[in-house]
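Table S5 (text form). Sequence records supplied for joint modeling of the three-component complex.
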Amino acid sequence: MELTTTDQSARIKRLVCDILELSEDEVTDTSRFAEDHGADSLRAIEILAALEKEFRIVIDQEEMANMVNLRGVEDVVVRALRT
Amino acid sequence: MSTPVITAWSAVSAFGIGRAAFDTGLAAPVGGVAGNADTREVPGFDIRDVLGPRGTRSMDRLTGLTLAAVAELVGEHAAVAEGTDTALVLGTTTGSAQSAMAFTRSSLEAERPFYVDPAVVPNGVMNRAAGQAAIRHRLIGPNTTIAGGRVAALQALQYAGRLLGAGRAGTVLAGGVEELTPARLWLERNSAQGRHGVIGEGGAFFAVTTDARHALADVLAVRSLALAGDDQEKAMRRCVTAALARAGVPAAEVWAVAPGNSTVELFDDAVVIAPEDRLGETGAASGALQLAAVLSTAARTPGAAGRIAVIASVEHGAVVACAVLRLRGRS
Amino acid sequence: MTPYRTTDDRVVLTGLGVVSNIGIGASEFAEGLRAGRSGAAPITTFDTTGFAHANGCEVTGFDPEAVLTRVPVDDLGPATRFAVAAARMAVEDAGLDEELLRGRRGLVSVGTTDGESQDLDRLVETDVRLGAGHRDTRLAERIPAGRLSSSVAAELGLTNVEPVTIGTACAAGNYAIGHGYDALRAGEVEFAICGGADAVCRKTFTGFYRLGTIAPDHCRPFDRNRRGILTGEGSGMVVMETLTSALDRGAPIYAEVLGYGLNCDAHHPVAPDRASVARCIRLALDDAGVAPAEVDLISAHGTGTKANDVTEARAIHDVYGGEPPRVVSLKSMLGHTMGAASALAAIACALAITHEFIPPTINHVETDPDCRIDCVPNQSVRADLRIVQNNGLAFGGNNAVLILGRCPR
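The corresponding structure-token record, covering 823 residues in total, follows.
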């Protein structure tokens, strides 16, 4: 697993919780957006779009499959920041 | 086919949210409306306060007003919800111009043109409000958005009659909604029909069925006609004459008329019902709020039962429309 | 079997008007369909700088000045120009005399997704480029979407018609045709001019792009490697009348409207719902009095997105069992023309019935095994078509399915 900075992690978590309409203590690194938090495909795209804007990156659509929980999202952001 | 009837209604306007607020506001002699000198708005309409926090994060005002009006109607008339043959027909001008323009603006101003919010993409499409109302109340029948500006609500009522006549729905929730936003205000102020006067917002919905048991009014006829270069007053005269003929009612029998922004000359002695004097020009909601005002007035007027009312509206330079109703009065 | 109907109860298509990105006018359009022509090219309507890819299916070679005779072109937004031109073509194609039409009671219904959003985009572009206060105020009168239908009446000089614009997004064309069918069968009108129109705009392209549903190059419906839609534009309008009326005046008949179905998923704002789509197909077949086994061809909504095509194919299998008829997507050629899509597709169905061919699904490489349909890849085929189904599915879960049939000669 790639490491993100604490600041990045906090920004990602805040952004995800805002979109999923959850408080930050309801979401863990491994709780799943779809299965555990009822997110649908549009919510997943919202997360992708918000990350792109927040970190000024472009995330490949194929990465959606990996963005199932916070840990997955952090990995995707790190990969996108490198390219 | 049997005549469509209106069995329940709701309204959201500068008088407030719900039928009771509308009745009270309309019955009061003056005032009682929110807004600035040249605008009227639904007082204190905060989407989250009215509709709750869930599912409202990205909701625009047009959808919020629509959902509020439909929820009030479903509350008035619980039997309409969850029915497989309940349809929804919404009159609009062009959906939320504000949402469409804000989305384009966000694209043009972003560092990259696709750094936009996907959650608001559907807000920029005209059928957004009708679709959201269907989701909220599980209305799986026909779901139609009619874009006609000031004649949209009457056209929605006409379309509702056709759905019932063809057996495509058992109950139709039909109405019209308009939002007051900077985009709407600019469009109004730069067109002939909205250049002057007070601009308002709101909406009203009606449960329309062919089951006459709880009827508040029979919808005897609804007509709309293209102007196609014809004189507006002449066209309205033709439209009203045709509707009265269809209803089988002589002009002399008309008790009340809600002329809206039109000139209807045929009824010298009729009671004039003009909610727009208080609520402002409400675009696609206008015909619906006029109809609500007629029903509200009839309900508090002894002897209104059995009498005829005409509701008329004009989309300037384009279309005239009218409806002829027989009031059932207090049930 | 079809319940007995009198010729007054039967509704037929007698005139077709087309403004499309693969041909203008019904005969050019038919040639384009038969040849499997593609409307795809880089978008020119707006500046696409910053998007990784921006193909679309725009109309080229369309001169509204050459078609419109009454209404000044500048008074109309781009989508309305398409609608008005297509309506005029449809009336001419039907061999109807305008003077005669003026005396008759009619309906004009035009479906649209975006109305004049291209004009709204222009207002915003002005704001961003020049700041507030520089907008072209003349656009205000042409933006209300009601203009799409009222301008058709104005151009044709029809004062005894009811103009209705139906904004049910990408199912709007079928909604509009269905409305004409009901009005004619109820005996409320003597003719109906119905269809749909939309113009390519930044707002809608950007929306679909952000949702990850714009294909990088071409639209490949039902293909294993499909990547999405291309936004398109145009208008399809039809003249409808009762069979009695058509026979009386010896009009050419392209097809009969056998029935249609409408419903709403009431489930999700953008994701289609398999069971609800299947229910809509059944509603349409029941309305038409047609059994699934009688249907010879399905013109699918077939957007070419991952979600739509598999959901739609499964819904078709739910209704048709193991062996559905051939299922084609015109969006492979035309792109997604939004409110015009199901109207242009209905016209394509009518032309397919008349000229005895099935238009192909182009850009096809390998059918998605999850779809399990014969999409008539890349080459049109000859076919004797009696009954054709035309699907229109939209954002908001607005579904509309139309059933057309060959009218016995």
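Note: The first helix of chain C runs from residue 26 to 35.
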